[in-house]
Write a sequence for this structure.
């Protein structure tokens, strides 16, 4: 996967701007494009902080909220760099391809097929860890009960109780038993979908504003003799 984020500026500048920019020394064109790239990075970080996408809408709610999700996006945003800037283009992206792959999944969303075998293989070392919130919810929905004083038929435990008193392995075993008793066939595979959270890039209107503002700054710097 290409670790770069392409920002298209063609058609977003007036003819006068294009002629003036083309007449600039390569050094100044590089400066302008690099600053536009840095502005794109700054706005990408802001979107992560405010949890809003490119259209200004809040990120869609996820079916399974994982701890540290926002921190992961913040970490990704901090890794954004202007990785190349010359006289014709600036490239914003990641030096690490692994970061680029994760960012692409967050940006565009993705659907992944998970198998029971892969979960068992990857989760072998975690069988003695506390039961997860998803397991606790599934156990309650499957009718799991515990014996309580003054309760002959048992009582549904709270999610907190399950997470504090059962391990991942125990909860998984109980859940399989309850589903088998109910005549349900165990799933061997299923899909998990991660909704898109577009935090990278900029809209055409934003790019146009960046160019206008930064172009004026550079013209002022030229007038002051800053080259």
């Amino acid at each position: 996967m290409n670790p770069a984020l392409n920002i298209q500026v063609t058609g977003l500048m007036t003819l006068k701007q294009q002629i003036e920019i083309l007449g600039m020394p390569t050094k100044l064109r590089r400066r302008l494009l690099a600053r536009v790239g840095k502005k794109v990075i700054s706005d990408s970080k802001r979107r992560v902080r405010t949890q809003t996408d490119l259209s200004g809408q809040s990120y869609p709610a996820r079916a399974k909220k994982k701890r540290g999700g926002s921190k992961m996006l913040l970490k990704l945003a901090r890794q954004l760099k202007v990785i190349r800037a010359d006289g014709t283009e600036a490239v914003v992206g990641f030096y690490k391809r692994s970061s680029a792959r994760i960012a692409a999944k967050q940006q565009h969303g993705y659907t992944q097929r998970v198998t029971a075998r892969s979960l068992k293989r990857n989760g072998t070392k975690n069988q003695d860890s506390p039961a997860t919130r998803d397991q606790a919810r599934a156990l309650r929905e499957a009718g799991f009960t515990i014996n309580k004083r003054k309760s002959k038929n048992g009582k549904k435990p709270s999610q907190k109780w399950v997470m504090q008193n059962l391990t991942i392995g125990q909860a998984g075993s109980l859940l399989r038993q309850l589903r088998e008793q109910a005549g349900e066939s165990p799933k061997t595979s299923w899909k998990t979908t991660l909704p898109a959270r577009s935090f990278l890039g900029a809209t055409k209107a934003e790019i146009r504003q960046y160019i206008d503002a930064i172009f004026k700054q550079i013209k002022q710097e030229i007038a002051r003799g800053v080259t």
Observations:
- Residues 4-109+195-223 form one domain.
- The chain has two domains: 4-109+195-223, 114-192.
- The chain has nine helices and seven strands.
- The first strand starts at residue 4 and ends at 5.
